Amino acid sequence: MTRTIRVLIADDQMMVREGFSVLLNAMPDIEVVGEAVNGREAVERVRELAPDVVLMDIRMPELNGIEATREIVADARVETKVLVLTTFDLDEYVYQALRAGASGFLLKDASARQLADGVRVVAAGEALLAPSVTRRLITEFSKLSDNPRLAASAQAQAQYGELTERETEVLVLIAQGLSNGEIAARLVVAESTIKTHVSRVLVKLGLRDRTQAAVFAYEARLVTPG
């Protein structure tokens, strides 16, 4: 039997929480196990319930979604993935939330199928970025490309220096938004081989998923916008 994906919904609007709960509980492989009305409660509920995925609103009282995401990702006791929900594809906090450890983004007007598929993708350890949000992310990197804080630090250089040439190549292609299948086709190798490379990249860099790997590649200047 397929394992049920356990979801926590964190949003300060009751109608949003109830609406998402109804949509997700209608799926045979997804169960909403709890709700939170602010970021602080989201962190507490994650520690209590250990859900597979948190649907996290960014703008919430007491503790916003970015800080809540950072605390959840930093907690070694849980392996919960965070899928951030935003009202606007031009959300100014997209980049910050990705750096905090969010595994992906969805717009709040996503269809029931998109919402469910998004939860499944993130629960499986993949990255999920709506195309419009990806464009926003690249735009933000472009704006910040001359910012000294995005220069490759000695630590970052040391980290990616541990990667093999092929692993570095795979990391760059991840940052360019390619799937495992697309990377395999590009490098003319089996997809299972790419999965192995991706796993090694994440372990060596101490990253949780492909989204963090993409952010790392940009910040280490292995990839440049455009």
Automatic annotation (TrEMBL):
<feature type="domain" description="HTH luxR-type">
    <location>
        <begin position="156"/>
        <end position="221"/>
    </location>
</feature>
<feature type="domain" description="Response regulatory">
    <location>
        <begin position="6"/>
        <end position="123"/>
    </location>
</feature>
<feature type="modified residue" description="4-aspartylphosphate">
    <location>
        <position position="57"/>
    </location>
</feature>
<keyword id="KW-0804">Transcription</keyword>
<dbReference type="Pfam" id="PF00072">
    <property type="entry name" value="Response_reg"/>
</dbReference>
<dbReference type="InterPro" id="IPR001789">
    <property type="entry name" value="Sig_transdc_resp-reg_receiver"/>
</dbReference>
<keyword id="KW-0805">Transcription regulation</keyword>
<dbReference type="Pfam" id="PF00196">
    <property type="entry name" value="GerE"/>
</dbReference>
<dbReference type="InterPro" id="IPR039420">
    <property type="entry name" value="WalR-like"/>
</dbReference>
<dbReference type="InterPro" id="IPR000792">
    <property type="entry name" value="Tscrpt_reg_LuxR_C"/>
</dbReference>
<dbReference type="InterPro" id="IPR016032">
    <property type="entry name" value="Sig_transdc_resp-reg_C-effctor"/>
</dbReference>
<protein>
    <submittedName>
        <fullName>Response regulator transcription factor</fullName>
    </submittedName>
</protein>
<dbReference type="InterPro" id="IPR011006">
    <property type="entry name" value="CheY-like_superfamily"/>
</dbReference>
<keyword id="KW-0597">Phosphoprotein</keyword>
<keyword id="KW-0238">DNA-binding</keyword>
<dbReference type="InterPro" id="IPR058245">
    <property type="entry name" value="NreC/VraR/RcsB-like_REC"/>
</dbReference>
